[in-house]
Write the structure tokens for this entry.
Amino acid sequence: MVARVIPVDQFDLVIFGATGDLARRKILPGLYRRWREGQIPEGAAIIGAARTEMTREVFRSQVNDALQEFVPASELDAAIVTGFLNIIEYVTVDAKGDDGWDALGALMREETVRAFYFSVAPALFGELAQRLHLRGIADRNARIVVEKPFGKDLASARALNASLAAYFHEDQIYRIDHYLGKETVQNLMAVRFANILFEPLWNAQFVDHVQITVAETVGVGGRGEYYDNSGAMRDMVQNHLMQLLCLIAMEPPHCFEPDAMRDEKLKVIRALDPLPPSDLVRGQYRGGAGGDDYLAQSGNPDSRTESFIAMKLHVSNWRWKGTPFYLRTGKRLRARVSEIAITFKEPPHSIFGESNQWRENVLVIRLQPDEGMDLRVMIKEPGPGGMRLKDVALDMSFAEALGNDLDIPDAYERLIMDVIRGNQTLFMRGDEVEAAWAWVDPVIEAWETRGDRPEPYEPGSTGPEGALMLMHKDGRRWREIR
Ligand code: NAP
């Protein structure tokens, strides 16, 4: 089955920071794939913007290089690439200066959706918003897309929100969290709210606990200095993991509309209990061969920044009181895995006797490497010899279920098309981001005041010992990272 592609309306998309890493690796390849699928109309314009002076032709050739590098060869077709390059323009613009804006304005068409992707450092967001507005380039229908990090604490997030709100309405601001663009995350909504099966069980009475894992194999690499000012809590938990937690824990919205969804997610963040130190473990990968060591890579021999974090959260509301949510994320771990696992409680009574070991029902939502879901259920082991139980996975791999030629758009592709369509459902609202920081800030302040040092863990392991203990002391275990 081939996915149905609905073309979007005419648009002009300006990518500020078009020569940067994110534009080359994700945004431009993503747009190419949507072009290839026929979703981008002929006549749409993609306008690269950055300070570097170059002609349109030179920029097109750089885009071509990026496509050759980051799009699989099987998806590269010379004629399609040429068609795509033909809709690409370039202007030299300095976010902080006055040059180039007239040229940009002149490239843009009237009566067309205008979208501006701020793929630049957040320190430039306010300047860009201001100039787009004052130069009359962004009208009331224009959209701006902003990247993470959205602040480093509540105060800076508020300041960023205010700098955008001075020139744009909230319904024009698209704060990207690419985890929300993943197919499985949206499928989670479908599983929860389009089936009668799960929702009655989706509460503290039937759910023993929830685990959310985002494990990376890479270290901080060349981003060491940047990362050292951030750490896993700011870089991953405040945005991605908390968004996933919200989607699991939220009440059913009355409709699948942006504000209905975002209102419910916000309530979850506000219902989070403060985090006691005993429910938090921070780690740093240390002592690997060949300089595979956080302190060496961050360039800060006394760094107390965590490259790993695990925590137990409680959502204090009627639905979840008593069901812990365990979150962990880290770098230089054994495998690259992102998943959510919902572990259900034991049946109240077993009719099969003690010899049959009971295993929990677990619904696993895999975000990577292969997006899909599986549900572990108990069945009878086939064959004679009485009733022996066995737990098996009811696997719902999308590729298998829907056909191997299914083209699942990358999260960035989907999200950019949503911007053009004007659909904010999968984007974070300003108050959500602020509420997340309001929960995170005191946790960070507390460990800084205590002077906590992260616990060392071996590169390529599953994280520090303390993280295992966080679960063991509750009589539970993390799912394997493999
Ligand atoms: P990058 O590689 O450093 O690129 C920055 C881009 O901004 C370049 O195109 C640069 O081009 C342009 N730029 C810098 N100063 C400018 C100015 N004053 N006016 C106009 N353009 C300017 O950064 P990146 O990695 O692409 O990241 C971009 C944004 O995405 C950042 O906010 C980052 O935190 C976020 N992000 C990146 C990733 C990723 O994987 N890279 C992931 C998530 C979020 P010129 O020097 O020619 O001006």
The CA atoms of residues 370 and 397 lie 8 Å apart. The pocket of NAP is lined by residues 16-23, 50-52, 93-96, 119-122, 124, 147-149 (CB under 6 Å). The first helix runs from residue 21 to 36.
